[in-house]
Design goal:
Distance between the termini: 46 Å
CATH class of one domain: Alpha Beta
Radius of gyration: 21 Å
Number of strands: 8
Bound molecules: iron/sulfur cluster
Structural class: alpha/beta
Largest sheet: 4 strands, parallel
Helix content: 40-55%
Length: about 425
């Protein structure tokens, strides 16, 4: 970090000793996972910098924005439209949930047998080590899986900043109407919190910002189709993770600059793994910072990950919003059209997810699919079996992995992943 941020963290009410312990773990873990990779693109330096300051400079920026009267809106799901937040001059950020922290505090309020992502959120919140949560004016939860529905009831009793969106579980006419009405209610709540009115002009402008971000990420995704891949899967994932924290305009500029460099690499036939190295598509539960365990195992074993069918990845970022309407109603309809296409496993039926996995497998020239399920995540673990069956039936090798944030299963995962890669090499 570039300076001593402890006074800032103290002002946010963080537990400084616990937070120091978290950073003391994160710094070396990041260096060992990312900085040790060979032949990284120069453009990754920016993202390394962002990560080195993710609890420092970025939080300082959020506090400066608050001093200017802007509101910080913390979210947990890709169904929360950043367009609405930006349109009322808010700043949207993700919440810390990608590691197990203070599990004993979390398990005092939620069951031990809960998905690590939700338990991680409670650990970071109750352990007072998430500066994004501490800096936020509103925390937006959503009724998606059962774990999150109940989590927001429990956290709602602890916080007066909680707003919960009710999300449909089907793409029926009634489901669409529910999402639309929830977005309208959310927009009103944002107006109240920010004191700004949502206007057509502001929503068109905000939509353009988010569309450009998604376009840049789609460009990055397409470049990973090259063989050899011009960037590692770890770095691809990292950029998708940073998309939830960084300023969207600056982030887009940096992703585009990186893509320029990657285009030159592709033209020169330069890559991060040997040509012909096994190419893996990862599909399943979102991986939040600093959840890098499985991708690191895959790539250390000599394979390269060429895409993420995940909410921290293409599922969450694909498709832009049509901003051509000239009324708020029309623009909100376009938002609903775009967001209802996110094929989260909470939806039933959810056939488009399988279509997307197949499409990504072909587009990014993957040799196989690794289905990543977080322990106790019913929606994705339940979908994993049918997905594996359908992919294998059409000749796509698939490995199902179920894991948590711990390191106890690393050896077992290595063995299974290495055997899977051998299968892909045959
Ligand atoms: S997997 Fe579902 S619940 Fe999780 S972030 Fe994505 S859309 Fe939201
Ligand atoms: S990983 Fe699964 S259980 Fe956990 S929050 Fe997401 S959908 Fe819910």
């Amino acid at each position: 970090m570039s300076k001593d941020y402890r006074p800032m963290w103290a002002s946010l009410g963080l537990d400084l000793d616990a937070h120091d312990a978290l950073l003391a773990f994160l710094g070396p873990y990041y260096a060992e996972t990312f900085l040790s990779q060979d032949n990284r693109p120069e453009g990754m330096k920016y993202f390394d910098f962002v990560m080195s300051e993710v609890h420092g400079l970025r939080i300082e920026e959020l506090l400066a924005a608050k001093d200017e009267g802007r509101k910080v809106i913390a979210t947990f799901c890709t169904y929360v439209p950043e367009e609405l937040v930006l349109a009322v001059d808010g700043v949207m950020v993700g919440l810390c949930a990608g590691a197990s922290f203070a599990p004993e505090l979390a398990e005092a309020v939620v069951p031990r047998t809960l998905c690590p992502l939700i338990k991680g959120f409670f650990g970071f919140a109750l352990g007072r080590v998430c500066p994004y949560l501490a800096a936020s004016d509103l925390v937006v939860g959503e009724n998606t899986c059962d774990g999150k529905k109940k989590a927001w009831e429990i956290y709602g009793d602890m916080s007066d900043r909680m707003v919960t969106l009710d999300l449909p579980q089907t793409r029926s006419i009634a489901g669409r109407a529910l999402l639309r009405s929830e977005y309208v209610t959310f927009a009103r709540r944002l107006e109240e919190a920010t004191g700004k009115r949502l206007t057509v002009e502001a929503l068109v402008r905000a939509t353009a910002v988010v569309n450009r971000k998604r376009d840049a990420l789609a460009r990055l995704a397409r470049l990973r189709a090259a063989d050899p891949a011009p960037i590692s899967g770890l770095d691809g994932l990292l950029i998708n993770q940073i998309a939830f924290y960084d300023d969207p305009v600056r982030f887009t500029t940096q992703v585009d600059a990186l893509c320029d460099e990657l285009e030159a690499r592709v033209a020169a036939g330069e890559g991060v793994a040997a040509r012909g190295a096994p190419r893996v598509l990862v599909s399943g539960c979102p991986m939040a910072v600093p959840n890098w365990k499985v991708p690191a195992i895959v790539e250390r074993a000599g394979a390269v990950i060429v895409g993420e069918e995940s909410c921290v990845g293409e599922r969450g970022m694909r498709n832009t919003v049509d901003a051509s309407a000239d009324t708020l109603d029309g623009l909100v309809d376009a938002l609903v059209d775009r967001y209802l296409g996110i094929d989260c496993a909470i939806f039933t039926p959810n056939g488009s997810r399988l279509d997307h996995i197949r499409g990504m497998h072909d587009a990014y020239r993957a040799d196989g699919v690794l289905h990543y399920g977080l322990q106790f995540c019913q929606p994705y673990l339940m979908e994993a079996g049918p997905v594996e069956h359908a992919l294998e039936k059409t000749g796509i090798p698939t490995l199902m992995v179920e894991t948590d944030y711990g390191t106890e299963d690393v050896g077992q995962l290595q063995t299974r992943i290495e055997a899977f890669l051998e299968r892909l090499r045959d």
